[in-house]
Amino acid sequence: MRKLIAGNWKMNGLASSLAEIEALKGITDHAACDIVVCPPLTLVEKAVERVRGSGIAIGAQDCHARTSGAYTGDVSAEMLAEIGARFVILGHSERRSAYRETDGAVAAKAVAVHETRLTSIICVGETRAERDEGRAIEVVRAQLEASIPNTATSSNTVIAYEPVWAIGTGLVPTLEQIEEMHSSIRQALEKRLGEEGRDVRILYGGSVKASNARAIFGVRNVDGALVGGASLKASEFAGIISAAV
Ligand code: PEP
What we know:
Layout: E1 4-8, H1 18-22, E2 34-38, H2 41-51, E3 57-60, H3 77-82, E4 87-90, H4 93-98, H5 103-115, E5 119-124, H6 128-132, H7 136-147, E6 157-161, H8 175-193, E7 201-205, H9 210-217, E8 224-227, H10 234-243
Helix pairs in contact: 5-7, 7-8, 9-10
The protein binds phosphoenolpyruvate.
């Protein structure tokens, strides 16, 4: 399966940072895998202009489930599509914890994303306590079941497995733990979507760097990565992209 390398800039970056996205155009490897960068909302339209014609896609980090209305501060999938975004990250653990986003809310947002013909990157992952209690597989299965809407297909949905304890900490699960989880996610996708489930890309996310990416990409059912901190600098992100091809 063609790998997808997605960068999540979180709340980082001003207009001067767009050079880091533009620099990715110089990576000859990018034709062999799909690349998406999700900068903060203020940079989405400008980033789209900078990468035009390159094959690099630009995404957003969240959206509202409704198309329009009295939702101060929110942005709809349709608005994101209008400015050229093609992907939307949904249910990132930072949003699940800081804004109490539930699986149901994530599923409703994913429907809006799919109806707008954008691709959702739906994030799931267990906490440290849940893993220590031996419940990681069960927790992620339940999140998948309730966060993936019936509109999901292999072309409009990507799953990102991101153990909460590995995000921004420098900690990474063992390759065996990643393989076990990704295989469980694949089974759940096949059960839910039938044959389509085989083609849904499952990304690993959590402290991916150029130095550990190749080993992670060698794990069965790892179809790419969702990268936070290491996506902010083109040189480091480029090292991860090279590891995927
Ligand atoms: C993320 O925020 O999705 C993430 C994986 O962050 P980091 O790569 O910095 O751990």
